[in-house]
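TASK: fixed-backbone design
INPUT:
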């Protein structure tokens, strides 16, 4: 049977299907306890509606790989940070026209607007403007680029 960690690592985020749970940095741990696979996830946002889908997708993937007994636990400490997105994940986001979150210089207050505008994924200009604090999902904001006119999603830094 495939290693359960490898099975879970390939499950994709329901809202960002170009990212695996591993690339997104939400996969904390996979252990086997007797015959039960125990998966620990840290959701990106504690209220993220994608978590229920993620949990179901993990269980289905494990069942398909032959693991009939599995459970998904969530841990909120330490809190997920957008810094946990892998380099591969950041590249995948940019390739799909989503400006990846910048590295945090310190604790980020979720309520604060980003101090630096995200770079346009099309032309890399930082002359961008936030149109809406919520994009296609709550984790994203919507921006337009003054340089090339592109409208793009930006995954927020947290
Ligand atoms: Zn642009």
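OUTPUT:
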């Amino acid at each position: 049977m495939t290693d359960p960690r490898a099975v879970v690592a390939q499950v994709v985020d329901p809202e960002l299907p170009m990212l695996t749970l591993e690339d997104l940095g939400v996969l904390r741990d996979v252990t086997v306890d007797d015959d039960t696979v125990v998966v620990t996830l840290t959701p990106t946002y504690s209220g993220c509606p994608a978590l229920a889908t993620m949990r179901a997708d993990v269980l289905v993937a494990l069942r398909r790989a032959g693991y009939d007994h599995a459970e998904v636990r969530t841990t909120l400490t330490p809190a997920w940070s957008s810094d946990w997105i892998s380099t591969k994940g950041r590249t995948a986001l940019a390739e799909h026209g989503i400006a990846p979150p910048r590295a945090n210089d310190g604790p980020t207050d979720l309520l604060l607007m980003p101090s630096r505008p995200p770079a346009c994924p099309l032309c890399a200009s930082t002359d961008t403007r936030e149109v809406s604090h919520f994009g296609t999902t709550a984790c994203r904001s919507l921006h337009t680029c003054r340089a090339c006119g592109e409208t793009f999603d930006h995954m927020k830094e947290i």
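COMMENT: The first strand starts at residue 27 and ends at 33.
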